[in-house]
What does this fold into?
Amino acid sequence: MFIRLAWRSLLSRKGAVVMTFLAITVSIFVLLGIEHIRQQAKSSFSNTVSGIDLIVGARTGDINLLLYSVFRLGNATNNISWSSYQDISTNPKVAWTIPISLGDSHKSYRVMGTTTDYFKHFHYGQKQALTFAQGKVFSEVFDVVLGAEVARELNYQLGIKIVLAHGMASTSFSQHDDKPFRIVGILQPTGTPVDRTVHVSLQGIEAVHLKTLNDKEPHDLTPTSITAFMVGLTSKMATFHVQRDINNYQPEPLSAILPGVALSQLWQISAIMENTLMLVSILVLLASLLGLSAMLLTSIRERQREIAIMRSLGAPPSFLFLLIQTEALLITLASSVFALLLLSLCLLLFRGFFAENFSLSISTHIFDNNILYLLLIILVSAMITSLVPAISAYSNALQKRLNN
It folds into this structure.
């Protein structure tokens, strides 16, 4: 009965209520959206690689090396010679290595040249290994293994032949259409950049760039250089020693980074941006809630007849106080629900955009502890800001009661 009365009261002023509702909905949508994407970005980046002790590339910044080698974002400043890679990989403290060669693409998806050790030693999340949904590891020069998203979005199946292109443009005029690759494997989804990667052998990368390739004549398909390589050590105690040796490597300038440390540096840089966005969204929400308070305060002066009728029916001042608070709660609850629905829809529509352009796997599941905590804070804030009109209504009713 009480909630129905508050609802009917709001409907009688639907013009002002709708505008306030929309303002609060937008502010809640922005606040929850920023928080959800922030948490998902951290989770996505943290789960991308696991069990890698060092990442080695040409001399560059730690973050740049992490981005292009792990997240397939950006480009290397230079390549590493194959002889340097072999020299470092034979170090007694090195248990295994995963060479990486980047530069080509297939319909905007990155092509990565590597070896079969990639499927043995690369892990993501909580040390989860790569597994195959279909097929097997490449074994021939022109075999290719697709990430889950590539196969799904392009509707590819085993046995189909695809053509690689030079560079990352969506439309390339440098197609290697004379040397097609055959799909022999499709990986299970990982929620990492692996899903958006086309995997071929290092020999395949070399072969596709040869001007002529005669099957009857042997060709040396040993790479002359690679983009980077990942390192697993025999002992964690040797990490800093091997890192120092690589950073001081004499034949050519190299950088060896710890993935976890580089990731922490990345979040430190982005922390200022995160905090700024959160502050702006909080201020927008506060402005909307103050607008709600102003709307309710203005409505009190317009509802003198309604208030007089309720008083004549015996409604105490506390009843009017609770009525104003309930109206504020109803508007905020409705705005929260609508904002959550809108956020879910936008995440569903733009999930592919985040994955393709930022290598972020954004979940459409928005109900976690942080979101629920924010919703509780929003509701409490709405009740606090509506205290001014509620107290005003209470005071006016009490004053008139005392005068009578």
Q: What stands out?
A: The mean pLDDT is 84.
